[in-house]
Amino acid sequence: MTYQHTTPTFGGRQHFLDWLRVLAFAYLVFFHTGMMFVDWDFHIESGHDSEFLKSIMMLTTTWRLDLLFLVSGVAISFMMTKMTIGGFLKQRMVKLFVPLFFACAVIVAPQPYFEAVQKGLLEPGYWYFWTEQYFHFTWLEGMLSPWPTYNHMWYVLYLLLYTVLLVPLFMFIKSEKGKSALSSLEKWITKGSRILWAPYILYLSVFFYTGHNDITHAVWDDWFGHFVYAYILVLGVIFVRMPKTWQAFEDNRYISLLLALASYSIILVKHHLVGDPLQFISWDLMEMVMKWSWVATLIGFARHYLNFSNKTLKYCNSIVYPFFILHQSVSIIIGYYIIDWGLNGVFEFLAVLFSTYFISLVLIEAVIKRSNILRILFGMPMTKKEPDLIVKPSSFS
Fold first, then answer.
1. CA torsion angle for 17, 250, 62, 320 (degrees, to 10)?
2. How far apart are CA 358 and CA 282, in angstroms?
3. Could you please report the per-residue DSSP string of 178-237?
4. Residue 4 — φ and ψ, nearest 5°?
5. Would residue 126 count as lying in a domain?
6. Whole domain around residue 133: which residue ranges?
7. Which member of 4, 54, 121, 168 has the greatest number of CB atoms within 10 A?
């Protein structure tokens, strides 16, 4: 394997963040497959309840999307340097709104269908459901969401919303006053271990103000979620313009790891032990500590070990968006049929997991990439057809 080491600066590609983005999206398949095999609410339920899977998922459930919003903030910051505000908003509409609308209308539709069929709320017959029922704005009792719905595409919806609402902030950051403010902030936050505790000031302030850390993913009633995701998106926007912060994450990576492991250990003790000896410690507060400490840990270690690019990273980056759009529907469709086989839970989990990866990749390579219309609908750039080569007769013929 060949790879190229780089020193990240603003205006250059942050390869370690690309790795984190790719790995985080790949992990979503594991997480959403796992949701079928624990006793948490999900669209498809296998009847299994794995405490081992639940323990792994408890580790990541508080911060896995925070990491993606931070990386999205970095990408936004790069784009803002290359485009006018109008061009930036137009690009965001094509990249976010078009795939979001298409996914809600077509790709997400199988999710409520198979959920309703498994729960006995609908008779089998997908074509009838999609053409006659899906677009009627219905919410049946017992369903996790109404239809039509956005389900896992809430991430794209929130990203689109923040992109529009935060334009004034993006413009300020590009101004001379904004650059001066970021320069001062960079000098302050990169000293010692401030990069680890300073972001908690706003995190905990809002947490204690609201009295909870509930995130609903319902755009009209998710105020704590909006704060958390918009906040970390803004951190991504400004950190990439303060390149010394990445070094601060790397320098403090072992401290953040200790904090991350300690908070996770407390969560495990509180969950698994009967007569919890740590009941005086707030569960919600520990989840807040886990949130930033794990994000900081992953950034620090990724910058130290994954600061390179190669063909694998470039390929994964090119397909990560359509993979995200597809993965949950593919997983639910496969899961619906596999869990009826009545086999060992471990086998069923692995079958759904690897089948989701395989089928999603096949759909991307064999179908989506072949059509420019589908490429646009799945957030991929169009390809230009190569002109036919004119072969001139050889002088030796």
1. 10
2. 41
3. HHHHHHHHHHHHTSTTHHHHTTHHHHHHHHHHHT-------TTS-HHHHHHHHHHHHHHH
4. -125, 120
5. yes
6. 14-377
7. 54
Asked if the structure places residue 291 within a domain, the reply is yes
The pLDDT tens digits for 27-56 are: 999 999 999 999 999 999 999 999 999 999
Residue type, 212: H
**Amino acid symbol at 96:** L
Closest CA to 268 of 107, 11, 56: 56
* Residues 104 and 175 sit within 8 Å (Cβ to Cβ): no
Task: Tell me the whole-structure pTM to 2 decimals.
Answer: 0.91
C-beta atoms surrounding 132 within 10 Å: 10
Instruction: Determine the Cα angle at 295 with ends 231 and 292, to 5°.
Output: 60
Instruction: Answer whether 53's CB lies under 8 Å from 42's CB.
Output: no
Contacts of 85 (CB under 8 A, 6+ apart): 167, 170, 171
Phi, psi (deg, nearest 5) at residue 308: -155, 165
Is 276:269 a contact under the CB 8 Å cutoff?
yes
With a pLDDT cut of 90, the percent of the chain lying above it is: 74
- What six digits make up the tokens of 341? 């086989």
393 exposure class (CB count in 10 Å sphere: 0-12, 13-18, 19+): exposed
**Degrees (nearest 5) of the Cα angle 335, 340, 345?**
70
Helix, strand, or coil (residue 34): helix
Is 180 within the bounds of a domain? yes
Q: Would residue 136 count as lying in a domain?
A: yes
Angle formed by the axes of helices 283-305 and 64-82, nearest 10°: 50
For the chain, what is the domain count? 1
Give dist(CA 232, CA 226) in Å, integer: 10
pLDDT in tens, 364-380: 999 999 999 999 999 99
Q: Is the pLDDT of residue 80 over 90?
A: no
Q: What pairs with residue 344 in β-bridges?
A: none
